[in-house]
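Q: I have 85 residues here and want to know how they pack in 3D. Can you give me a structure?
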Amino acid sequence: MNRAFVWMWNFGEDVRFSLRQFQRVLDEARHQMARYYLSNSVLELNEAAYLLGFVDPNSFGRAFRAWEGVPPSDWRETHRASSVS
């Protein structure tokens, strides 16, 4: 097998692995910030979605349900800090 081809294949695998790692870190950061925004702020759900980098609030809702098992509005109701009116 051609060495250049093998090198390029391995390089491609390394890049894909790095992108998957980055996506996991980004996803975890978004999850933690979403929990913070929903429990400690008066932001609307669509504002929180925008701040977290979601283009569509529905995408944020789907991601949040995947993380927490409930829609963001339901989670907010049970976890909102008592100091937020």
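Q: Anything worth noting?
A: The longest helix spans residues 3-40. Residues 3-79 form a domain with the Arc Repressor Mutant, subunit A fold (CATH 1.10.10.60).
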